Amino acid sequence: MTSRKPFDDPALPPRTPEGGRYGEDVFRPGQPGEGERIDLGALAYDELTLNRLRALGAGPGWRCLDVGAGTGTVSRRLLREAEVAGVLAVDRDVRFLAERPVPGLDVLQADITAPDFAPGRFDLVHARFVLMHLPEPERMVSTLAGLVAPGGVLVLSDAVDLTSDRTRARDTTPGGGATADTPYAAAMRAMWQGLRTSIGTDVSWVPSYPQLLRAAGLTAVGAEMYVPPLLRGSPISRFWADTWERSRASMVATGLIDGAGIDAAIRYLDSDACAALSAGMLTVWGRRPGTAGTSAR
């Protein structure tokens, strides 16, 4: 059975949230190299994330919740660089977090979609590349907003697909003028559709974050987007190549690409011919009205 939600794009296949899940059917933590794949993404995005969190006030005395913490790079940098009072790092599988304990880092294995998820209230609630893999965006944003203490902030980051408009690369050969997909664009469209069908990933509603934060009662809502270039050998290029390898079956199942097309896209990323932008990362934040410093300590 498939279903649509208010933010679903009718031009896309229905989501199947009752089917597979991230970390179970695709991107399993126990799969060799998965921690390294996550860390490649962290190398591309952590600096921007930390700068934003610190600009919003994260610092000494703050108690923080890092949702879907993965390998814990953001959690550890909050402790080390922002010198926050403590971080509760939550994930459905905490093996990577448990492997690298540091003072001030508490680890909780939990499913944030569970009705009884209520770990307390925090000065900062942060989730990056998490909600896009989950159903019921309105409920999840409301749930996380409810964990923000007065004066605290909720910060959400997720992907924005820049290939959904069927972006084409112009043929620059003499006498050219027709347009054609780059191998990268073809692979990305197959990936997003394959993940949507297999595990319910949906980035089509991510631009609606600001409205959802306001509807959840947060104020001073702001947003920014970062779009890294795909440079040969860069962490983000390696991240996408590894991601396609791990989601190869769901990509081929879309009928939009075959194995040879995926191989061509991986070669393209590692070539001087590559001239493309990664998917964007949209970061949105909002503040809980009230006086800061009243979270449970």
Could you explain the architecture of this structure?
The protein has 9 helices and 9 strands. The strands form 2 sheets. Strands 3-2-1-4-5-9-8 form a 7-stranded mixed sheet. Residues 1-8 have low confidence and may be disordered. The protein has 297 residues and is an alpha/beta fold. Helix 5 crosses helix 9. The chain has helices at residues 34-55, 73-82, 95-99, 137-145, 183-199, 209-215, 235-246, 248-253, 259-269; strands at 63-67, 86-91, 105-109, 122-128, 148-160, 169-170, 179-180, 219-226, 280-287.
General form:
globular
How would a crystallographer describe the biggest sheet?
7 strands, mixed
Low-pLDDT residue intervals, each spanning 5 or more residues = 1-8
Radius of gyration: 19 Å
The mean pLDDT is: 88
Percent of residues in beta strands: 15-25%
Question: N- to C-terminal separation?
Answer: 44 Å
Which structural class matches the secondary elements? Answer: alpha/beta
Strand order, biggest sheet?
Answer: 3-2-1-4-5-9-8
**Which bin fits the share of residues in helices?**
25-40%
Total number of helical segments? 9
Instruction: Give the helices and strands as they follow along the chain.
Output: HEHEHEEHEEEHHEHHHE
